[in-house]
UniProtKB/TrEMBL annotation:
The modification 4-aspartylphosphate is found at D56. It comes from Marinobacter daqiaonensis. This is Two component transcriptional regulator, LuxR family. The keyword DNA-binding applies. The keyword DNA-binding applies. The lineage of its organism: Bacteria, Pseudomonadati, Pseudomonadota, Gammaproteobacteria, Pseudomonadales.
């Protein structure tokens, strides 16, 4: 049976590079490409038994690591490899802390990306040379909030993302094609699961998933 791999990146040129790496690593693979977190959720719902997701760290609709944490919570058996223009050790460490099976810098040459894909598909974790040893010396941060975020349902996660964008209940209801009462129920559930009392606290909480300003130049991520 052909392996199914999802490439999630909003940069067409890098999607093409990743597709080329996939074709070299697994010539018979079935590849799906998406450009946003919303499209990624839909793709995974259609193919929950996919073999690998290559996830751009700065996907439209995601807040830093929130997309990774959500996927790990909803699909714990689905390997996710983060792909980023950043080579900051803190970014790599947090990716692994939040459940990624690997981290591929966008500066990596094609053969290295190919090796990374093969390694993860074989069940290994992949990091650039020398990085694993450095990360072992770094203290892992508290991931309590990531556990809470991972407990959200797909619809609750969508609602939280829209809250973080400053959308009103009626706007969210319109976009999701449900009633405002349904959105209020989702928001209540989100507040309860995240342990917050209002929108402001929820937005502050989700910002924990954002990259630190010192983490990188966001261009090219």
């Amino acid at each position: 049976m052909a392996q199914h791999i999802i490439i999630a990146d909003d940069h067409p040129l890098f999607r093409a590079a990743l597709r080329q790496a996939v074709s070299q690593a697994v010539p018979e693979a079935e590849v799906a490409e998406v450009e946003s977190i919303k499209a990624l959720q839909a793709a995974v719902e259609r193919k929950p038994d996919a073999d690998l997701i290559l996830l751009d760290l700065n996907m439209p609709g995601a807040h830093g690591f929130s997309g990774l944490v959500f996927l790990r919570g909803q699909y714990p058996g689905l390997p996710v490899v983060m792909v980023s223009g950043s080579e900051d050790l803190q970014v790599m460490r947090r990716s692994i802390d939040y459940g990624a099976s690997g981290f591929i810098p966008k500066s990596a040459p094609l053969p290295e990306i190919t090796d990374a894909i093969q390694a993860v598909l074989e069940g290994d974790m992949w990091l650039p040379e020398g990085v694993a040893e450095k990360l072992e010396r770094m203290q892992a941060e508290n991931t309590d909030f990531s556990d809470r975020l991972a407990s959200l349902t797909p619809q609750q996660f969508r609602v939280l993302g829209m809250l973080a964008e400053g959308m009103l209940n009626k706007q969210i209801a319109y976009d999701l094609d449900v009633s405002e009462a349904t959105i209020k129920a989702h928001i209540t559930a989100v507040f309860r699961k995240l342990g917050v009392r209002n929108r402001t606290q929820a937005v502050i909480a989700i910002q924990q998933m954002e990259l630190d300003p010192s983490d990188t130049s966001l261009s090219g991520n």
